[in-house]
Sequence to fold (299 residues):
Amino acid sequence: MTTHWSGVFPAATTQFCDDHSLDIEATARHVERMVEAGVHGMVMLGTVGENCSLERDEKLAVLRGTVDAVGGRVPVLTGVAEYATRGACRFAVEARDAGVSGLMVLPGMVYKSDSRETIAHFRAVAEATDLPVMIYNNPVSYGVDVHPEMFADLADLANIVAIKESSEDPRRITDLRNLYGDRFILFAGVDDLALESVMLGAQGWVSGLVNAFPEENRRLWDLATAGDFAKARDLYRWYTPLLHLDTHPKLVQYIKLAMAVRGFGAETTRPPRLPLTGEEREWILALINRSIETRPSLS
Fold:
């Protein structure tokens, strides 16, 4: 299967009203804002999109609304994060019917599968659809690690085309390239390792902070992929304190707060995620505001 995924793919937020109901219109406006800023694709219903906080019908509504808003200008992927393999397979089929371009598949939620079970889960979901699949490896958040060697048992499935590597070990990019050549499209999945990952051969970047800083994010990508590492490094040094927010358990609240400060959306999250308060909120706000005040020229 030939799939041309590359560049910046926001892990987009899902917007909610004050009563925690879905705000599809606000979600679509935010997606439009990032597409206009030049992102190369969109990932809905990932960790930042609060996948596991949405009901099935809500997830499909978000996907249909996003597909309509994007209108084919960039690929739209959806996270597949279900508790059981059977449910993940069913959602993969439903997401295809909703019009998405591909899937970003996570291991089964809650249960910490072993290597054999993890491979079986990914194979089953991929075999349930003809959509291209990105395997999302995030052992830090989900407790299941897909080691580079394990992808040998998935390489025969033509529609498994990409890997989002979020182990926080940039050596994995080189290990995967050495093992499989260009068999898989490699995506950086940790914001504050993005430049390192590009230098090692990542062809894409699934980013969280792009929700609040889309132009800066795209500029960093362009500089890095053009090999202008001196300018890329300067921009990255400014951006890195913000990018560190992507690695915290409260990354959704932090990213949504940054969006709200910039006027790009509401900071409302669904419980159990609660609004930031007290010293924590003041610290994050100070970081965001300081970064905005010192934003470098992108020319």
User: Anything to note?
Assistant: The chain has a mean pLDDT of 97. The radius of gyration is 18 Å. The chain is about 45% helix and 10% strand. Residues 7-293 form a domain with the TIM Barrel fold (CATH 3.20.20.70).
